[in-house]
Design a protein that fits this description.
This protein is 75% helix and 0% strand. By secondary structure, the chain is mostly helical. It is built from eight helices and no strands.
Length: 204
């Protein structure tokens, strides 16, 4: 059971880290959501500031956040610092669970039962969240922030934190969809591997 949970955590955290690192999705949204017009900056400026924000969220970056073209309030800085702490934990979790998953695979410790449980976990959880995301995205978005943050600094005022103008809800919804799809793919792969392992064992 512990190995199954580790595999599930790896798949989920890997999906989150992938979306954090996969910048082309946002670059596409600059044009899709007309973020240059919404923010009053050109597309290259929007892209540059998003890149700075992503670099800040990477685990190895220990510097302070300084957006080159957007002013930030103290509450905005605190919120992004809170986000960084969360992403740091996710990236560490991805690394540790990934190493443990790889070691288990090399030592052939992942039994069909282990993979089956991992597959079920990584399908049921995102499937439930996916349904909520499609039916009640705004409620899920608010609940998510309420659970993760101890303040309401995530409620940005565009007059003091204009960076919110280039971070639309639609982009976060897309990120959630990509994460869910990756996790579901990982769960299906685990179930397929469990089926293959069980089949080989029955033929012996």
């Amino acid at each position: 059971m512990i190995r199954a949970v580790i595999i599930a955590l790896f798949i989920i955290s890997l999906a989150v880290v992938f979306v954090l690192y996969f910048r082309p999705l946002y670059y596409l949204d600059i044009h899709l959501f007309h973020l240059d017009q919404a923010s009053g900056r050109d597309a290259a400026t929007v892209r540059r500031n998003y890149d700075v924000l992503c670099d800040y969220l990477f685990f190895w970056n220990r510097g302070a956040l300084a957006l080159p073209d957007f002013a930030m309030s103290e509450h905005g800085r605190i919120h992004f610092a809170d986000c960084k702490r969360i992403f740091d934990v996710v990236q560490i979790l991805c690394l540790v669970s990934g190493i443990l998953t790889l070691l288990g695979a090399l030592r052939r410790k992942h039994t069909s039962g282990c993979l089956k449980i991992a597959g079920i976990l990584t399908i049921v959880i995102p499937a439930a969240l996916g349904i909520l995301a499609f039916l009640r995205w705004e409620d899920l978005f608010v609940t998510f922030h309420t659970l993760l943050f101890r303040n309401n600094y995530w409620l940005f005022d565009p007059r003091t934190d204009p960076v919110i103008l280039i971070l639309p809800d639609g982009f976060f919804f897309q990120c959630a969809v990509v994460i869910i799809l990756i996790v579901l793919t990982g769960g299906i792969f685990c179930l397929w591997r469990a089926y293959r392992k069980a089949g080989r064992r029955r033929r012996r």
